[in-house]
Amino acid sequence: MSEQAIPSPRLQFTGLPTVGNWTTPLVLMVIISLGAWLVHELHAARLTQLRSQGSNLARMLSRVPAGELLAANGHSPTLDLLRHLQGNPDFAYGLVVAPDGRRLAGAERDGVVVPVAPISDRPSDWFEERSLDASTDGTRYREFTAPLLESGDLVGMIRVGYREPGLLDCVAALSPVSSMVLPVFLLAPLVYLMLRRELRPMRLANERLREAVQAQLARPDETPPLNLQLSGEGGALLSNLNTLLGELHARLQQADEARISMDARGKALMFKNARMEGVLQSLPDGLLVLDRAGEPVFANDQFARLLHVEPDRVRTQRPVSWCRESELGSLLAACDLTRQQRVMGMVEFSPDERPDRRLTATAHPLFASRDDVEPAGTLLTLVDTTRENFARQARKDLIAQLAHELKTPLHVIGMYGEMLLEDEGDDQGFRLEAANLINDQVERISALINNMLSLARLESGNLRLNRSRLRIEDLLEDIRASLSGAAEEQSLEIGLEVPQQLPYISVDKELLRVAVNNLATNAIKYNKPGGRVTIGARESDEAIVLFVADTGLGIPSDKHEAVFEKFLRLEDDPGVQAKGHGLGLSLAKEIVELHLGRIELDSVPGQGSEFRIRLPKTPLLMKIGV
Description:
Strand content: 15-25%
Largest sheet: 5 strands, antiparallel
Low-confidence stretches: 1-21, 574-578
CATH architecture of the largest domain: 2-Layer Sandwich
Distance between the termini: 78 Å
Strand order of the largest sheet: 2-1-5-4-3
CATH topology of the largest domain: Heat Shock Protein 90
Structural class: alpha+beta
Shape: elongated
Number of domains: 5
Radius of gyration: 48 Å
Helix content: 40-55%
Oligomer: single chain
CATH class of the largest domain: Alpha Beta
């Protein structure tokens, strides 16, 4: 509708048509002809209305979920409500029948005998209009059918029947009108003669009104004035009716403005709803809103994805049809607030399609407003807690590993302490051996604690690099010298390979020392008697490379990635006798990555391994050396 102002209408009096003298027979013929025509038109209109209403009603009912139409004891609240609200007096019955014709539910008007009719098994005949005879009283019914489908399968047929109106019904509806029309037609000639004499002066007004109407149609934005000089009751009638039409014009303008305002508010509300739905759809967690009966009202796509179910099924079907997890099904069944006042609960389960994942579903009562006491529905959140479960398990494993790593050296220290208090403590050689063993175990515990503290600081993000100028050769020589004693105990040769004129680099000296020292310590532990450990560095165009090579046992290729995990050791492999806590390589990897570098590994079982710390030549690494 245009927002242009509606021009105020004026009354146009068209006068009375000029006809000859009417006679009574002519009037009767006109009445009879008009009555017959009205009966025919009324009958056709009722049939047209009946067919349109019946077809639309059958199709509408076929789109209603089967669970709402099929109720206990053969009665359907939906069909009963339809029967009471049906405004068409010809409505007879509404049924839901099985594909074999057996009645499942229905509602019919009092005194109606539903005719028996076969159900076709051809889909092309499911939407059908047919005329049926009642076997008892001969009443004819116009019936409309539509299929009732569930998940693509035919579960029943909708039958909607109307009593076909006859001509006598239309005559009965027309008889009150006829009783009023007949006297009017009989008085028409007399009234016409009287009005013709009294209203003769209005013929001129009629012509002028016609001219005004034509001018108004040509210029809709303007209302030309009408200078009509009518005396008597005619002038007063025109004045009163013009006043009434002016008020009607003003109200139409107000209604048009209200409609425009309502359209604007409706569009704003639709925009807000679309924006809110977009926000809910973008959430990483699944959301499901249920009404008081536990029926889905809203579900975002993430909820369906987590359960590996089509989103349309979640939104349109009852949970029992798409929920395959028993734990979640029990929680959804408890969300039927028509059976209980409030539901709150949480379940954790693994989907059948992804048993390696863990999902947590939590039910919350949903209130329509803050002042409501009774919940209007239930909000169900579905969260993927796989990582949280892994983290909890990792913490448990970490505590178990720490307990094991601390228990062994503490047991050795306690055992030798007790032996020193007994007769063995008088032996000088035993005391020296016990002191060395206790010192080794203390150093092992100290190394474990230091590594754990460093790892904790790295993983929490609280550790900041304290970069300073470093000469690579000095760092590697200090590490070689500190480990030479341990190498001699295992009859190993430890060497240093550093080219001259390596550039200075900007790194955290202490952390980088820990990383290289852990690599060299492992090279000594997992070596063979008479073997060699080489600590060195080299420079390429892109990076500074620190390496530790050994001639030891080597590492299988399938464990190259796993050796950097916490508490992983190769002690279970044949020939491995070294003991450690399994944190050295993990800590070294974290330190190198904190310097924006990476650790590389080349190893051949039985021949040895080479660990390389590759530090890219970034401006941050080389700025002090320039």
